[in-house]
Amino acid sequence: MISSTQELDHYLNNSDRIEKNKVCAIDTEADSLHRYKESLCLIQFTAGKDCVLIDPLAIDDLSPLDNYLVDATVWMHGADYDMTMLKREFGRLPETVYDTQIGARLLGVKKFGLGNLVEHYFDVTLSKTSQKADWGKRPLSEKMISYALNDVHYLLEMGEKIVSQLKENGRYEWFTESCQAAQQKVAERDDSKDEQWRISGSGKLTPYGLTCLRALWHWRDKEAESWDRPSFMVSTNKHLIEWALRLADKKTIDLPPHFRAERVKRFNDMLAEIDQVPKEEWPLRPVTKRRKRDKDFDQTVDKYLALRKEVAADLDIDPSLIASRSVIETIAAKEAEPADVLMSWQQKLLGL
Fold first, then answer.
1. Is the per-residue pLDDT at 17 higher than 90?
2. How many alpha carbons lie under 13 Å from residue 110 in its C-beta half-sphere?
3. Is residue 82 a contact partner of residue 69, using CB atoms and an 8 Å limit?
4. Contact 129, 121 (CB under 8 A)
5. In the chain, what is the greatest distance between 2 CA atoms, to the nearest angstrom?
6. Please, what sign has the CA dihedral across residues 219, 221, 226, 227?
7. Span 5-188: which CATH code?
8. pLDDT tens digits, 293-308
9. Model pTM?
10. In the list 116, 185, 243, 283, which could disulfide-bond 210, CB 3.0-4.6 Å?
11. Counting beta carbons within 10 angstroms of the beta carbon of residue 243, is it exposed (0 to 12), middle (13 to 18) or buried (19 or more)?
12. Would you say 72 and 23 are in contact if contact means Cβ atoms under 8 Å apart?
C-alpha cells in the first residue's frame, strides 16, 4: 500500500519496478454504496512487474500519478466508471485508454465481465466476495486486498492477448476508434447535470406531480447528506415516483415504519411547503419533438436493422456494437448524418 506522496513519487519515477514505456493498468474503488458523497478510496495499479495499491484517502497530493498518466497508455476494464473517477480527481484523462471489455466484445466474447474474461483467457476463477465492500474503511482486510489486486493483475497480459486476436481478425482499428470514442464521451460529459430530480419515470407526471417529485428529491437528498449515506438508503427512485403520483392524486403516503420521528416530521414539513409553491413555478414537462413516421422511414429502419443483423451474424458479434436501434432511427429520420452518430468502421459495415 502506497500511503504518501513521497512513496508514490518514488515508485512512479525512481523505481526499477516501473517499465519505461508507460503502459499500465488501473482500476479504482469508491464508497458510493456507503457514503452520501462518493469518494475515490483506492487505486489499483500495475506497470507490468508488480501490482500495488495507492491510497487516495491517505495521500495529500496525487500529482505524481496525474503526471505519470497524462502521457501513458492505460488499460482498464469497463473503463467508463474508472475514467470518470480519474477525471473527477485530476480534471483530465490519460492520453490513451484501452478497455479490455470493448476489445473482448469486438471479438464476439459473449460474457465480458472481468471475472468472465479472466476465466476465459487464464482459466482462473476470481472471488467476488468484496464487490460491495466499504472501501473507505481502514485497514483493508486481506480478502479485500486480494480482491483489489486481482482487478489489475491480469489486465496487461489480457490486453496483449486481445490485441493479438483483434489484429488477426482485422478489427484492431475498430478497437482503437471505439476506445477513443468512449474516452471522448467521458471527457465531454457534464457531471454537474441540472435538474437531477428528473429521474426515470418522471415523464408521466403532471406539472403538479413534478413539483411534488422535485420536493421529494430534495428532501431525500438532505436526509442522505445529514446521515452521510447514499440517497437510495433513504428511499429509492421508485418510491419517489410512487409518492409523487399519490400526492398528485391528493392521496396520503404510508411512510416506511423504520423512519424515525424526526425524519417523518421533516417529511411532513416538506409536504406542507409543496402547496405554497406558486403555479407559475411548477416545473413543465419536457417538450419532445415527435418523430414523423411514414412508410419510407419504416422501410429504411427495417433495411438497416436487417443489414445489421446479417453483418453481426457474419462477424459473430452483438448487433448493437454496429449501431443501436435509436441511432439507426435517427439516421432514417435524417436527424443526423451517419458520420455524426457512427464511427468510421460502423459506417463501412452498414455501407454508409
1. no
2. 1
3. no
4. no
5. 69
6. positive
7. 3.30.420.10
8. 778 999 999 999 999 9
9. 0.89
10. 283
11. buried
12. yes
> Who contacts 144 (Cβ-Cβ below 8 Å, separation ≥6)?
130, 133, 135
48 bridge partner residues: 18
Q: Classify domain 202-281 at the CATH class level.
A: mainly alpha
Cα 53 from Cα 43, distance rounded (Å): 6
Domain ranges for the chain: 5-188, 202-281, 295-349
Between CA 13 and CA 108 the distance in angstroms is: 39
Residue 292 identity (one-letter amino acid): K
Residues 305, 16: Cα–Cα separation, whole Å = 53
| Grid cell in block for residue 122 | 487464464
In whole angstroms, what is the distance from residue 345 CA to residue 264 CA? 56
Residue pair 34/132 in contact (Cβ under 8 Å)? The answer is no
CA-closest candidate to residue 115, choices 84, 79, 164, 77: 77
C-alpha cell at 13: 519515477
Q: What tens digit of pLDDT does each residue of 67-105 get?
A: 999 999 999 999 999 999 999 999 999 999 999 999 999
Question: Before 278, cis peptide (omega within 30)?
Answer: no
Residue type, 183: Q
Beta carbons of 75 and 22 less than 8 angstroms apart: no
| pLDDT at residue 129 is higher than 90 | no
